[in-house]
Structure formats: C-alpha cells, structure tokens
Specification:
This protein is 40% helix and 17% strand. By secondary structure, it is an alpha/beta fold. 4'-deoxy-4'-aminopyridoxal-5'-phosphate binds next to helix 4. Keywords: Pyridoxal phosphate, Transferase.
Length: 404
C-alpha cells in the first residue's frame, strides 16, 4: 500500500496552485513530475562532481565517470539486460528509435518489409518511413479494432520471410492499450524478423524484463519515469548492436582515427558519440531507484484503482465517449464529449487548475481511424488521487454545461 500523503510530499510541484487552484496534474503521459531526490541529485552533480567523463585522469572526471557507469549498471539490472554493454544512453525514446532505424538502412534491401502498428506515436512511424524511402523497403501497418487493440490475427498474416523488423509500443500513449508484445515478439522471431519495442509509456508503470520478452531492442525515455528530460535508454541485443553501424560519428565512439580509416569503439561507446547528458544519465539512475523504492506493485495497484474510479465517474457524463476500451489498459483515459471540441474542454478545465492533454497526442493515424480531430487525455500516475479525479470530473461537467 502506498502512503499517498508521504508520496505527494516528495513532489514539490504538486502542492502548487495553477490559476489560483490547486494543481491537478493529469498529463503524466507527456512527462511525469519529479521527486525531490531527483531534483537534488541534479544540483548535487553540478555542485560536487561536474566534469567530463571517460577521458580525464583527474579525480572529478573519475567520480563523474563512476557515477555515470553505476547508473548504467542500475538500469541494466532494472530491465534485466544480459550484458552491461547492451544498455545505451540516449536522449530519449525518439533518439533510440532513430538510432535503430538508421542502422537498418545498412541491412534492408528493396522489397523487404517493416511492420509498424496502427497504435504508434509519430516517433515510431516517421523514422521507419524515412528508412523505407532510403532503402526501397515497404512499410506495412498492423491494424487495430474499435476498442483500440491490435488485430493479432492480421499481424500474423502480415508476417513473412520478407519481414525484417517489427516495431510496436508496449503501451499506447493515446489510448493506454497494453499490447501483447511477448506473443508478438515470438511470432516475429519465427519468421526471422527483429523486434523493437517502444517502451516510452510502459516504464512509468512497469519494470520491463528484456530477457524474458526476448525483444531485440527496447527504447524508453527517462522523463516519463520521474527522471530528467533529455535522457533515455536504448537496450539492444549484443548481436544486433554489433551488426548495426554507428549512428553518429565523433569523439568517444572511436578506437583509432586516421584520415585513411577510423575504427570504432566497442559497445556501448560505439553508439555514444560526443559528450553525453552526464548529469541526466546519472540522475536517471536516481529516478530508477526512486521508482523501485515506491515499488511497481504499489504503483500498479494505485493506478488500477485510479483508472477504475475515473472510468466509472466519466462514463456517467452524458455524451462522453472513451477511446481505448480494451481489456489490457494502463492508467490513461482518452475521451470526447459529443459535439464539443476537445481543446475547448481542455482550456476551460485548465482555468480550474486541471492539466490534461488535448489534441492528437502525436498519433494522427489513431485519430484518423476514429475520425476525430483529437481527444482529451487524462493520464494518471501513482501520486494522483481519487479526490483529484473527482475534481476533474466536476470540472468537465462544468465545461460541458458552459459549451453546450
Ligand atoms: N513513443 C511513445 C509511445 C510516447 O508516448 C512518446 C512520448 N510522448 C515517445 C515515443 C517519444 O518520446 P520522447 O519524446 O521522450 O523521445
């Protein structure tokens, strides 16, 4: 059980007022708030050990390097990667996906197929389209149904020996659907295809086990799991990371440089060109420790109750429709009210201190599927409460009355 008062006290921003009202923060899908330990760890780094890493012999450089590499070990254990060098620091999910898509340009041939799902964020669509344009490979889409679930039988029919990579999110940011990725990975492997999982929306809710999933790549962002912005991780299986060419050239990623030829550093440095976000990488480890100290069982229990409470309360509003009604769902509710633009509701409830997301959530194909311009998305975190949901429901009712 969570001690919700203690938890909320750890997030200074949550006691703020916005527009004169207590902040109700339900935009966790966009980015999470940060606990004091994370905020403190950032300033501690700059106050005490700021130095460039991996190259200095002086004490501060050693301390910063050790802290950065200890963070990598924490993340390795957190996601259960077999090897430490399979854990690459990135600036976020987008960076990780682009790194892999760029690498596949060296592997794909015209006529090869890339499968993306209908539920993807733009950052897990566009890099693959760019890859297909570059290589002559063909992009195919795993379709979804009206509940916002992937149609797995259609997925199985799309898979063939032409499929070289399948890319799908663990949890949809727009609808909250939890995809059956373990099964999908198994099926892709049966035809010899690699699988990239976009874990951006999963890591705030669960601890991914990359060995058990047997995925080839798993990308996520730190800022959605209580960590700093501009941080992320790409897990890649050693065999794949050895096969892919480097993404960017520069310092740190080389073994030897001459004007005739450059040889590349071993993993993970081959993919970590330039000075990284050192403070961010270190503090991502602090965030992972924090999430584990709260406990993912507790997080899931709290979020499950919030989801059930909000779903029930919202559905009592006449004309309100929820998108994403599948059985396996994270604590995200996307909804609209008949005849009212989502932006108008979002703007009015913002005046009442309630932060939700409105729009297409970087998932225009999902909005096109439902033939809507966008939705209002409330995404809950373990630090949210049922009382906050009640405030949102009251605010939505008020907005509806004003706009009808
Ligand atoms: N994929 C999904 C499912 C997301 O929700 C997001 C962030 N909204 C991203 C990818 C991109 O993450 P980032 O902007 O942190 O790179």
């Amino acid at each position: 059980m969570l001690d919700i008062h203690k938890i909320r006290a750890e997030f200074p921003i949550l006691s703020q007022k916005v527009n004169g009202k207590p902040l109700v923060y339900f935009d966790n899908g966009a980015t999470s708030q940060k606990p004091q330990v994370v905020i403190d760890a950032i300033s501690k780094y700059y106050q005490e050990i700021n130095a460039n890493i991996h190259r200095g012999v002086h004490t501060l450089s050693q301390l910063a390097t050790d802290a950065y590499e200890i963070s990598r070990v924490k993340i390795q254990h957190h996601i259960n990667a077999k090897h430490l060098h399979e854990v690459l620091f990135t600036s976020g999910t987008t960076h990780g996906i682009n790194l892999v898509a760029n690498g596949f340009a060296a592997i794909l041939k015209p006529g090869d197929e890339v499968l993306v799902s209908a539920l993807e964020h733009h950052s897990n669509i566009v890099p693959w389209q760019m890859l297909c344009e570059k290589t002559g490979a063909i992009l195919k889409v795993i379709p979804m149904n009206q509940d916002g679930e992937l149609i797995i039988s259609a997925y199985e029919s799309l898979l063939s020996e032409k499929t070289k990579i399948v890319t799908v999110n663990h949890i949809s940011n727009a609808l909250g659907t939890i995809n059956p990725i373990k099964y999908m990975i198994e099926k892709a492997h049966a035809v010899g295809a690699a699988v990239l999982i976009d874990g951006a929306q999963a890591v705030p809710h669960l601890k991914p086990d990359v060995l058990d999933l047997d995925c080839d790549f798993y990308a996520f962002s730190g800022h959605k799991m209580c960590g700093p912005t501009g941080t992320g991780i790409l897990y890649g299986k050693e065999s794949w990371l050895n096969k892919l060419p480097p993404y960017q050239g520069g310092g740190e990623m080389i073994k030897e440089v001459t004007f005739e030829k450059t040889t590349y550093a071993d993993l993970p440095h081959k993919f970590e060109a330039g000075t990284p976000n050192i403070a961010g990488g270190i503090v991502l480890g602090t965030a992972v420790d924090y999430m584990n100290s709260v406990g993912f069982e507790n997080i899931q229990q709290q979020e499950k109750e919030l989801l059930a409470h909000a779903t029930k309360q919202l559905l009592e509003i006449e004309g309100l429709k929820i998108y994403g009604t599948g059985k396996e769902k994270a604590s995200v509710i996307s909804f609209n009210i008949d005849g009212i633009h989502p932006y108008d509701i979002g703007s009015i409830i913002d005046k009442l201190g309630i932060a939700v997301r409105t729009g297409h959530h970087c998932t225009q194909p999902i909005m096109n599927y439902f033939e809507i311009p966008g939705t209002i998305r409330a995404s809950f975190s373990f630090y949210n409460t049922k009382e906050e949901i009640d405030l949102m429901v009251e605010a939505v009712k008020k907005a509806k009355t004003m706009l009808s």
